[in-house]
Design brief:
The chain has 280 residues and is an alpha+beta fold. Helix content is 40%, strand content 21%. It binds coenzyme A. The site of coenzyme A has 19 residues, from strand 4, helix 5 and helix 7.
Length: 280
């Protein structure tokens, strides 16, 4: 092992030690406090249900397109379900909810990683670094729990339909603007095709997205940066929303296109991918 690898390994080992601690670092400065809605349901489901309804109103304004957001019953059900890995944090300014984040912690073999589903800031609080503060808080929280990276789906502007671009614009941000935000948050794109099966109750595969990643532990991340590693990450993520895909032609094509790769490259989020899905 060379000096650079040794340095990465020692960083990685110290993160693993911190994973055993239960401290939520990184919050504090920008927000009055962070409300963990899953924990709220464990302590008082009645109060938590009210909190979730208060949360849902600004969340649904941030994601104006109904198809882009979770429904209130689905969120409620997931937060009550002990086998769901979904966590929702509400970021409070005084008594008001100024933003939120939805994420899941996943296991791939021996490795822990995370999937980020939503981050939002209410329109009147935007442009004041609160989005960055939410992302910093999550990075510290997830890193302290041993996550080696966070994956997230993004619209690929080169594959987006005019309808989806218009729906994004209604939320006060374009898909290109979103990519710029996530690029500043340290996310990169995986230079491979990415498609996503329908969640329960829907029927259409999502073919116009890319998969981005924020690496939190470079040393351990290398184990996933191959074609088979990528497919196991994708499966671990899809399994969290109970989709069935194993026998689908689209899934088999994704495996064929990527599984043989020795290395999955990371590229800037706004660069065109060399390998991307073909739309039929
Ligand atoms: C994306 C969103 C969370 C940004 O929140 P915010 O509090 O305004 O962001 P911040 O003030 O923390 O900005 C952080 C950085 O991102 C940049 N940024 C924020 N919004 C941007 C945009 N629309 N276009 C380009 N860059 C943007 C800022 O310039 C800033 O860069 P800097 O640190 O170099 O100055 C907010 O616009 C939002 O809730 N949008 C609707 C929901 C959404 O699209 N969420 C993201 C997808 S899940």
């Amino acid at each position: 092992m060379g000096p650079a690898q040794e340095h990465l390994k020692s960083l990685s080992d110290s993160r693993e030690k911190r994973a055993k601690s239960d401290v939520l670092d990184g919050s504090g400065l920008a927000f009055s406090h962070v409300l963990d809605l899953r924990k709220a349901f464990q302590s008082d489901p009645h109060v938590a249900q009210q909190r979730l309804s208060e949360y849902y109103a600004p969340y649904s304004l941030a994601f104006a397109d109904e198809a882009e957001r979770s429904s209130l019953p689905r969120l409620h059900q997931s937060l009550l379900n002990p086998s769901s890995t979904l966590q929702v944090f509400a970021f409070m300014l005084g008594d008001g909810i100024a933003g939120g984040a939805h994420f899941k912690i996943l296991r791939v073999g021996e490795l822990t990683l995370s999937a980020l589903e939503y981050v939002w800031v209410s329109p009147e609080s935007r442009g004041r670094n609160l989005g960055r503060a939410i992302c910093d808080t999550l990075d510290s929280f997830l890193s302290a729990r041993g996550s080696i990276c966070t994956v997230a789906e993004f619209h690929d502007p080169s594959l987006s339909s005019p309808e989806s671009i218009e729906a994004d614009a209604q939320a006060g941000i374009t898909s290109k603007g979103r990519l710029q935000f996530w690029k500043k948050m340290g996310y990169q794109a995986l230079d491979v095709p990415y498609i996503c099966p329908p969640v329960v109750g829907q029927s259409v595969w999502n073919m116009d997205s890319l998969l981005g990643v924020k690496v939190l532990d470079e040393y351990r991340f290398q184990a996933l940066a191959t074609g088979p590693g990528y497919i196991s990450v994708v499966r671990a993520y899809w399994d969290t929303f109970n989709s069935t895909y194993g026998s689908c032609q689209d899934y088999r094509r994704l495996v064929e296109q990527t599984e043989g790769l020795d290395r999955v490259e990371l590229i800037p989020l706004d660069s065109p991918r060399r390998r991307k899905q073909h739309l039929s």
